[in-house]
Amino acid sequence: MTTPSTGLTLRPLGSPESRRARSGIAAIEMAVCLPVIILLVFGTIEASGLIFLKQALHVAAYEGVRETVRVDSNNSEGAAIAMSILSSRKIKDVQIRFPNGEASQAKRGDEVVIEVSVSKASNSPLLGHLGTKQTLTARVVMLKE
If phi over 0 gives left and psi between -120 and 50 gives alpha, with beta otherwise, what is residue 130? Predict the structure, then answer.
């Protein structure tokens, strides 16, 4: 059946030609939407991993400096606590620094600072394969007891 105003041929909905046309449209929609869906899924996984990594760094830095500021403690004890927390969470390539020097020589009320840094590439399931050289750093300051 042809419409006089447009010259298009209308086919009944149940005909084989209309079913073929609908399956072709579905394939095109899938080809357009699937890469976007995959990108969203992997982006969500990567963002979740980086949030976990950042949170783990903050927890390790907090616990490390908390141990370090105690009366009879020093930097190596605080670094050991922080390292044990990070290794239990399978975080690799960790650098722990105390920029203010040895905490055992600090006076009561002095600031004790810890910085815990890791490479994003070595701790990321997806970015690790892309070779990014970015680092995440957590810095915590407490007063010596």
Answer: alpha
Helix axes 16-68, 75-88, angle to 10 degrees: 160
Residue with tokens 């830095």: 61
For the record, the structure tokens of 69 come out as: 């500021």
Per-residue pLDDT of 50-79, as tens digits, reads 899 999 999 999 999 999 999 888 999 999
- In the chain, the DSSP E strands lie at 94-97, 111-119, 135-143
Residue 2: CB atoms within 10 A of its CB come to: 8
For residue 7, give the DSSP letter.
-
pTM: 0.74
